[in-house]
């Protein structure tokens, strides 16, 4: 097109500019509506992402130990250093991971990881301490009585932990016990069930501080647990798109309680039987068959292999899950290779993989099938 033709077109458009203004004014509302729809479709209109939260039980458990339930847990200087001393003592004594977690859970329950003096033991008040306890003559983070050793030793967190671990190693079969049972076997507490509430927080503390303690001791740090997906042992996901929790059957709820009672035990390939952990822990299907067998009054004995377990029960839709339902996922050529148990519509309990203890996790975004056994 010649330059003169462009000039003529421009003059024509300028002469009719008022008509274009009027047309634009008429079309403007429609254009704005279209833009709004596009924005809603690609931004505001999409389902809001699930929000990571802590379950109320875990939140209470952490707060009871003086731990912040906020993202990026914060600890007071006394408790966190005492906890590190427990980890260091366990590593020095070659205590397995489960044993160190039991020691941490015990100290959390007994003292909140604080080095306590006791007015009933006057000399303890002259030793640096972080609070007062009043349980008979008990002192220190483990609340140990005089027959455990000298007062100075019992109020030195690392030494107190060594004494605890020495006693733990004398308990036959402690690695096959639930953490709460092992802790009680050492402590002989008047409240034997109290330790169960602290296992998840102890596992979280251990995993947060292990690399730092190893680095301080000059030991090589372990590989980062990439398979953990960054999820903590008592985390959950709150997804507004899921349905309201279903009440569940009494047996289903009981199965969840049996599975959750094993939180903190290590993942053991082939681990778990109808009666509890084997080799010190569970694999995914071992945890499920144990919980189902116990909750069914010893009536339902599922096969240990996940590929066989998936053939039992009836299929349930995602929107109708109940506590105790089994979620099968991670398929390969033979079928689903992993199984977990529904706690609520947003949370499962599972023995996930090597290096990750039995834990609560978000409900999987992708799964093969949900089956109801109970």
Descriptive overview:
There is one protein chain. By secondary structure, this protein is of the alpha+beta class. It folds into two domains: 54-217, no CATH class; 239-372, endopeptidase domain like (from Nostoc punctiforme) (endopeptidase fold (from Nostoc punctiforme)). It is built from twelve helices and eight strands. The strands form two sheets. It has a six-stranded antiparallel beta sheet. A two-stranded antiparallel ribbon has the order 1-2. Helix 4 runs antiparallel to helix 5.
Secondary structure topology:
Blueprint lengths: L2 H13 L1 H28 L6 E4 L1 H9 L12 H16 L4 H15 L39 H4 L2 H13 L9 H9 L11 H19 L17 E4 L11 H11 L23 H12 L10 H4 L4 E2 L10 E7 L2 E10 L2 E4 L8 E4 L6 E4 L2
Antiparallel strand pairs: 1-2, 3-8, 4-5, 4-8, 5-6, 6-7
In short:
By secondary structure, this protein is α+β, with helices and mostly antiparallel strands.
List keywords for this structure.
six-stranded antiparallel sheet, 2 domains, alpha+beta, endopeptidase fold (from Nostoc punctiforme), two-stranded antiparallel ribbon, 374 residues
Fraction of residues in H or I helices: 40-55%
| Mean pLDDT over all positions | 75
Number of domains: 2
Query: Beta-strand percentage?
Result: 5-15%
- Radius of gyration (CA) equals 29 Å
Order of helices and strands: HHEHHHHHHHEHHHEEEEEE
Strand order of the largest sheet: 3-8-4-5-6-7
Shape: globular
Terminal residue distance = 80 Å
Briefly note the structural class of the backbone: alpha+beta
